[in-house]
Design brief:
Strand content: 35-45%
Structural class: alpha+beta
Bound molecules: copper (II) ion
Shape: globular
C-alpha cells in the first residue's frame, strides 16, 4: 500500500544535496513521488516501501534519516 510520509534527513547543506537525495528516491522502485528540501531538512515521500528501505536509499546517497515526522 502506498503512503505519503515525512522523513527528517541529516547532512544536506545545499540544493545539490537535496537534488541527490530526491533523484535517488525517485529512481527507486516503490517510490512514486519525492519532494526534498535541504532548508527544512526533510523528504516527503510517497512510497510503498518500509522505513528501513527508505533509510537505506538515503544512506546510499550519502545522507542520514534522523527520524520520521516533523
Ligand atoms: Cu550540498
Amino acid at each position: 500500500m502506498e503512503q505519503k510520509e515525512l522523513y527528517r534527513i541529516e547532512g544536506m547543506k545545499c540544493g545539490g544535496c537535496s537534488g541527490t537525495v530526491q533523484t535517488a528516491l525517485l529512481q527507486s522502485d516503490g517510490v512514486s513521488e519525492a519532494e526534498v528540501s535541504h532548508e527544512k531538512g526533510i523528504a516527503e515521500v510517497t512510497h510503498s516501501l518500509t522505513d528501513e528501505e527508505i533509510a537505506q536509499i538515503v544512506e546510499k546517497a550519502g545522507y542520514h534519516v534522523a527520524g520520521k515526522g516533523r
